[in-house]
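USER: I would love a firmer grasp of how sequence relates to backbone shape in proteins. This is the protein in question:
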Amino acid sequence: MSYDLYIGDQTFSSWSLRGWLMFEAFNIPFRTHLAGLYSGTLKEDLAELAPARFVPVMKTPDGIPVGDTLAMAETLAERHPDAGLWPEAPAARALARWLVAEMHSGFGALRSDCPMQLLGVVEGFEPSEAVLADLTRIEELWSIARAKSGRDNSPWLFGDYSLADVFYAPVAARIAGFGLPVGTDAQAYVAAHLADPAFRRWRAMGLLKSYDPVPYIDGLPLSTWPGPAPLAAVACDGPSLNDTCPYSGDLVTDFLKLDGQVWGFCNPGCRDKTVNDPEAWPAFMDMVATHNG
């Protein structure tokens, strides 16, 4: 059975990113519902999920609404003990919970001055002393987690990807999106998030919507997003090499061109999210690889 997850705008809702990654990264079945975080329909969209007032909020397969990402995380860990949401070792698990709790309640200057946005790097931003102090503490926490995990061959805080990484994904996005100064190890951790296929899928879906002006950045210009450069795909006319959509299995109606080959999808949304970052979508890349042998 599947959960229902209600989220806000993918480009800006950092809390929604946390909630979505809890499901996507750990292969927990869910259906996504976009609530009107900025359109004025949020109260109406969440009316059946009382006492929810904010996104994300989930509804369990047996109909129980759970809001707030900490409560969601613990509920999912309780219901899916074999999914690996927390580190297995007790000491690492305790430290991971500490890091998550501190992130959930702290770093007010970073949150206030550097709202998450996934469009590009804000040019000309000068971090305050309070933001720099938050970054120093974040780097300290990341360094301690990596040292105690003893897993130098992994980019993640405790070796295997865990809820600690879920909660710090929006922090990594803020560091990237405002070009904030951090050390080499922290830069590598940020880069791991930006390259993570699940993170890339989230961003690709957010790019389906455009903004003019861009919220939160006070008119400052944006330069290119620092994550992996997407493959050069463009929307085009058919026919395509495939007859059915790689995601739904339905007949194709909309098309993109990649490396001179035309591929089809069942609707413009499936096509456009793939255009935004083809490598973020395993089903599409597997189809291409299978065809090209």
